[in-house]
Design goal:
Layout lengths: L7 H19 L4 E2 L1 H8 L3 H9 L5 E2 L3 E3 H11 L6 E6 L3 H8 L2 H4 L2 E8 L8 E2 L2 E5 L3 H8 L3 E4 L3 H13 L4 E4 L14 E4 L2 H22 L1
Parallel strand pairs: 4-5, 4-8, 5-7, 8-9, 9-10
Antiparallel strand pairs: 1-3, 2-3, 6-7
Helix pairs in contact: 1-4, 2-3
The structure holds 1,4-dihydronicotinamide adenine dinucleotide.
């Protein structure tokens, strides 16, 4: 399949298509029309057709989309057709919660190391992976082809640790510390900042709007 330049907006929606298609596969559904998918996903059928047309030739008139094929093509686009070695820096509440979440592994993100600076955590095992001290980090990265590093450490340490990662060849950072790391790393390093509180604020906005509308009605 030839990949065209796909807009960021479409890329942002792909994980959701991927998830729904995975669920359809689990339910034994082999093909689905844009209308049916639209009903499930609460996205207009024309949006679905437009999005999926980006990848060319997926849907067939009167036949719909081949679920398995579409799922595997989207997996390729998202880089989920191969496994990625991942480490976690910061084995506190969030770091350990992420380490314990086995679903990432099923999606191809293989957790191979957890690092912290707190000596109390040294050797503690999370899901069979021993927490190591950060002084072992450079050697570990060199030996294990680490692709993705997850930062679940204090904001004040994020830039300093990102530099260690980048200097040792890590190219992708999944950043949970509340700082926009993109501004602090070279432009060829890929950063995905995650801010759960932003999602919560959107929820809060919608809740206040709902409450306002409700007051007007009553
Ligand atoms: P925590 O205090 O439980 O864990 C932080 C861990 O990082 C500690 O074990 C600490 O020893 C370790 N650490 C400190 N310096 C380090 C270094 N240089 N290298 C490796 N490890 C180091 O904190 P929690 O609750 O797990 O939160 C972690 C971070 O994630 C905080 O910055 C917090 O603000 C952020 N956070 C972000 C969220 C988001 O949506 N982006 C949601 C929740 C927390």
């Amino acid at each position: 399949m030839e990949e065209k330049d796909i807009s960021r907006a479409v890329i942002k929606r792909l994980p959701r298509y991927y998830r729904y298609l995975g669920e359809l596969m689990d339910d034994g559904v082999e093909r689905i029309s844009s209308n049916e998918l639209s009903g499930r996903m609460k996205v207009t059928a024309s949006q679905i057709r437009q999005d999926l047309n980006n990848f060319g030739g997926f849907g067939q008139q009167g036949y719909g989309y081949n679920v398995k094929y579409l799922h595997s093509e989207i997996a390729k686009i998202l880089g989920l057709d191969k496994s990625h070695n991942m480490i976690i820096l910061g084995a506190g509440n969030l770091g350990q919660a992420l380490a314990n979440y086995t679903q990432f592994e099923k999606q191809g993100f293989k957790l191979i190391g957890i690092f912290d600076i707190n000596p109390v955590l040294k050797g503690v095992s999370v899901r069979g992976i021993e927490i190591r001290m950060v002084d072992e980090l450079p050697d570990f990265i060199k030996k294990h082809q680490v692709e993705i590093a997850t930062l679940t450490l204090p904001k004040s340490k994020a830039v300093e640790m990102a530099k260690v990662l980048v200097d040792n060849g890590v190219k992708a950072i999944w950043n949970f510390a509340h700082t926009d790391l993109n501004l602090s790393v070279p432009s060829d390093v890929i950063v995905e900042n995650v801010h759960l509180s932003e999602s919560l604020m959107r929820l809060s906005y919608n809740l206040s709007r709902y409450e306002k509308d409700h007051k007007k009605e009553s």
